[in-house]
Amino acid sequence: MSYQVRITETAKQDLREIAFYIAERSMDNEIAKRFVIELREQCNRLVEFPQGGAIPKDRILRSFDFRYIVHKDYLIFYSIDEAQKIVNVLAIFNSKKDYLRVMRKFI
Question: What CATH number is attached to the domain comprising 51?
């Protein structure tokens, strides 16, 4: 059964910031747009395979049933509402960031 994917406002803001960062660094808006499209496509794959993401090593994040997928140097954190068949994309950020600190706002 397919799930619905919802991208939270926080994750949407993350995508905007990623786009601005890449556009500024590359001096090419098209590169930034393409990369954000790639990230969104990764999110949309969760429609069919929500359980496919990795489970965080941190026991606190595991206890909240968070999962994540990796796309290039970025992590896409999400949770699954099994009762409603909804995947909530919570945050998208560079893997070099301290993911525990980023995800604390969701605990």
Answer: 3.30.2310.20
- The pTM for the full model equals 0.93
Cβ atoms of residues 4 and 85 within 8 Å: yes
CA distance 34 to 46: 19
Contact 39, 71 (CB under 8 A): yes
Q: How many domains does the chain have?
A: 1
> CA distances (Å), 43 to each of 65, 88, 89, in order?
17, 9, 7
Nearest of 54, 34, 35, 36 to residue 46 by alpha carbon:
54
pLDDT tens for 77-100 read 999 999 999 999 999 999 999 888
